[in-house]
């Protein structure tokens, strides 16, 4: 067997060891990789969270109460569906004398749709509310997540002493999802029937009218209807449809009037 000659980088015959000498250029990536492994061991990566879990706080009802704006040395906290938010930047609204001060220092979720800001109305119970009403409250909670700082959870109806969600919270979320489906369905149904035009002025008050048809009040389905005025809407009906059951003529308005003053 003939001896195989090995040529080095200069084109000259050299030994095997000379040609396999370590190149600093190829060694750099390996060094970087080794350093990366060492750094990962010393400083492991953590998943991103805008609010670190260990900075969140669990409140009892008694612990949340002092954060109602009455003590200027404390921030103002508000609870909704068991989530607690720092609303201090909205002090003009949530502080003492503000229009929303009744929400501060407590979880008064129900009042967001009931409008009852006194006594038993300031409760976190959503019992007997429609799915649409529950959805509205969940929407309010999402607004606070977007607008204010989430600081923790309230132990009680929605979270246990370890901060874990209770079944009641899961039930509220499911009911809100059902409400969203129903409202979307109702929206599609109402799109088939034109709504009345409306206007208001200080001199003439309110008025509704139809360009094509006659204004009538029609009830929304119970599950869709929110409290008060949201339980009915004004729609325009053609003359041949005015005999349908459940249509209501505005008080003081002629049966065939196309404009009704309220």
TrEMBL record:
GO molecular function, one term: steroid binding
UniProt keyword Transmembrane helix, yes or no: yes
Residue span(s) of domain Cytochrome b5 heme-binding: 59-155
Pfam families per UniProt: Cyt-b5 (PF00173)
Transmembrane residue ranges: 20-40
Top-level taxon in the UniProt lineage: Eukaryota
Entry keyword Zinc: no
InterPro entries: Cyt_B5-like_heme/steroid-bd, Cyt_B5-like_heme/steroid_sf, MAPR/NEUFC/NENF-like
Gene3D superfamilies per the UniProt record, alphabetical: Cytochrome b5-like heme/steroid binding domain
Entry keyword set: Lipid-binding, Membrane, Steroid-binding, Transmembrane, Transmembrane helix
GO CC annotations on file: endomembrane system; membrane
Stated family: Belongs to the cytochrome b5 family. MAPR subfamily.
Name of the protein this chain belongs to: Cytochrome b5 heme-binding domain-containing protein
């Amino acid at each position: 067997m003939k001896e195989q000659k090995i040529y080095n980088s200069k084109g000259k015959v050299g030994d095997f060891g000379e040609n396999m000498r370590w190149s600093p250029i190829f060694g750099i990536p390996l060094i970087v990789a080794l350093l990366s492994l060492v750094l990962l061991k010393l400083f492991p990566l953590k998943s991103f969270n805008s609010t670190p879990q260990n900075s969140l706080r669990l409140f009892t009802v008694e612990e949340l109460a002092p954060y109602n704006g009455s003590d200027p040395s404390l921030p103002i906290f508000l609870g909704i569906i068991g989530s607690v938010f720092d609303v201090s930047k909205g002090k003009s609204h949530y502080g003492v004398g503000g229009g929303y001060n009744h929400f501060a220092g407590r979880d008064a979720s129900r009042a967001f749709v009931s409008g009852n800001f006194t006594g038993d109305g300031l409760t976190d119970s959503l019992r007997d509310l429609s799915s649409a009403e529950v959805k509205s409250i969940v929407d309010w909670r999402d607004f606070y997540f977007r607008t204010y700082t989430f600081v923790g959870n309230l132990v009680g109806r929605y979270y246990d002493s370890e901060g874990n969600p209770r079944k009641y919270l899961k039930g509220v979320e499911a009911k809100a999802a059902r409400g969203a489906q129903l409202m979307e369905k109702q929206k599609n149904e109402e799109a088939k029937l034109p709504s009345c035009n409306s206007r208001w002025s200080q001199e003439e008050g309110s008025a509704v009218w139809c360009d094509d048809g006659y204004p009538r009040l029609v009830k929304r389905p119970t599950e869709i209807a929110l409290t008060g005025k949201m339980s009915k809407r004004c729609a325009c009906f053609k003359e041949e449809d005015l005999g349908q059951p459940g249509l209501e003529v505005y008080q003081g308005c002629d049966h065939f009037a196309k404009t009704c003053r309220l």
